């Protein structure tokens, strides 16, 4: 049996393929835009998490400093401390040190700051009047110093200083508690590392090695988060000291949080590529069918035999020029029209679309001039996708 390509649905297939490609492209654009938006939102979420961790660290350090400042300030208000009787003050302060694991030693200094009495060495004729913590404390403020070199031990030290007040409330001296720098510790965060900086930008303590240039853009009392080359940094100033907590997270750690999203986008992109590839192949197939149709129409039109192809309804799809002559249809518009043939040929066409092949070895056709034209013809079905699509007429 003769099979024929599905010419009737060809243009529809091509249109569907074109629409499908367009939809796939739009879907790709929407996917990329959605990915960028979701990625941005996730990055903001991760950054807020980093900032929240930094704030938590700052709160913990502030709480610790508050406790130490309260302890030193309380001891400074003791009648024994206010007496400035070193024979009584020294054993009292040593006893208080036994209850404080962080503080290493105490000292008291008179108002002029030209000498100090220490729990470890007694009287030292050294001046601390130039120290910022002394100047703040003598004006009545409980304060915490930046890391400095102790003039008592010649070692890096933090000093918590509180005023010693007379009965009238005026500061007459200063009580200082020294904390060796190596005893000051901070907890490691959930992600990245934490560093604590003094007001001068000097590093006090860090949970891990820091990248170079971390404090290049540092500003006092600045709170926020920023991207610095290969890492993200959150800054939070303390409330109980002029210090700054910085949480440093490598960008690779931040990107790791986005891996599920990246994997999902890769899967969706792969599916889109497969879909576009399939639609593109369908489009190429439709174009190839279109070319095949054109070649077949040209072949049939110029065939040296009389032949025509009809659909199931009997409408002419394509025909040869020689067929026009044989059935006396020259000069007439016939494509898409019903059968312009003898009536019994229409009955034979109905038999053909039911699967029957009919031959006629000789038949007279009456022409317009009144003469008979003898023809030999055959009608048989043609198929598309396993179904009869119409009939072939050979004359």
Please name the defining characteristics of this protein.
395 residues; alpha+beta; Beta-Lactamase; 7-stranded antiparallel beta sheet; 6-stranded mixed beta sheet; rod-shaped
What does this structure look like?
This protein is of the alpha+beta class and 395 residues long. The chain has a domain at 65-178: PAS domain (Beta-Lactamase), CATH 3.30.450. The protein is built from 8 helices and 18 strands. The strands form 3 sheets. Strands 2, 3, 4, 5, 6, 7 and 8 form a 7-stranded antiparallel sheet that branches. The model is unreliable at 1-5 (pLDDT under 50).
Radius of gyration, in Å, reads 49 Å
Low-confidence stretches: 1-5
Distance between the termini: 18 Å
Query: Class of the domain at 65-178 in CATH?
Result: Alpha Beta
Q: Give the CATH H-level superfamily of the domain at 65-178.
A: PAS domain
Fraction in helix? 25-40%
Number of helices: 8
**What profile does the largest beta sheet have?**
7 strands, antiparallel
> What order do the helices and strands follow?
EHHHEEEHEEEEEEEEEHHEEHHEEE
CATH architecture of the domain at 65-178: 2-Layer Sandwich
Strand content: 25-35%
Mean of all residue-level pLDDT scores? 80
CATH fold name of the domain at 65-178, please? Beta-Lactamase
């Amino acid at each position: 049996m003769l099979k024929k390509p599905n010419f009737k649905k060809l243009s529809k297939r091509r249109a569907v393929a074109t629409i499908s490609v367009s939809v796939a492209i739009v879907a790709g654009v929407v996917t990329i835009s959605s990915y960028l938006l979701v990625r941005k939102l996730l990055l903001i979420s991760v950054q807020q998490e980093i900032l929240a961790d930094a704030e938590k660290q700052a709160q913990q350090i502030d709480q610790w400093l508050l406790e130490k400042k309260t302890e030193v300030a309380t001891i400074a208000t003791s009648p024994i401390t206010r007496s400035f009787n070193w024979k009584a003050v020294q054993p009292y302060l040593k006893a208080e040190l036994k209850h404080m694991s962080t503080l290493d030693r105490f000292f008291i200094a008179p108002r002029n700051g030209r000498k100090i009495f220490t729990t470890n060495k007694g009287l030292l004729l050294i001046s601390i009047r130039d120290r910022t913590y002394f100047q703040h404390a003598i004006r009545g403020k409980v304060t915490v110093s930046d890391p400095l070199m102790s003039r008592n031990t010649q070692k890096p030290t933090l000093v918590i200083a509180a005023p010693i007040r007379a009965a009238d409330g005026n500061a007459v001296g200063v009580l200082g508690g020294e904390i060796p720098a190596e005893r000051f510790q901070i907890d490691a965060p959930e992600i990245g590392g934490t560093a604590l900086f003094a007001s001068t930008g000097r590093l006090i303590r860090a949970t891990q090695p820091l990248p170079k240039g971390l404090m290049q853009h540092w500003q006092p009392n600045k709170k926020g988060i920023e991207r610095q080359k290969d890492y993200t940094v959150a800054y939070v100033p303390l409330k109980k000291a002029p210090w700054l907590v910085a949480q440093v997270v490598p960008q690779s750690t931040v990107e790791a949080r986005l891996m599920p999203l990246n994997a999902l986008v890769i899967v969706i992109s792969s599916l889109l590529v497969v879909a576009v590839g399939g639609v593109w192949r369908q489009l190429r197939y439709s174009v190839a069918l279109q070319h095949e149709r054109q070649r077949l129409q040209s072949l049939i039109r110029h065939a040296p035999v009389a032949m025509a192809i009809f659909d199931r309804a009997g409408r002419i799809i394509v025909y040869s020029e020689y067929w026009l002559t044989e059935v006396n249809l020259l000069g007439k518009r016939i494509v898409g029209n019903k059968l312009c043939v003898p009536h019994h040929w229409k009955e034979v066409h109905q038999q053909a679309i039911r699967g029957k092949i009919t031959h006629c070895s000789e038949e007279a056709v009456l022409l317009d001039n009144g003469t008979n034209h003898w023809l030999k013809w055959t009608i048989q079905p043609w198929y598309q996708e396993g179904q009869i699509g119409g009939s072939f007429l050979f004359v």
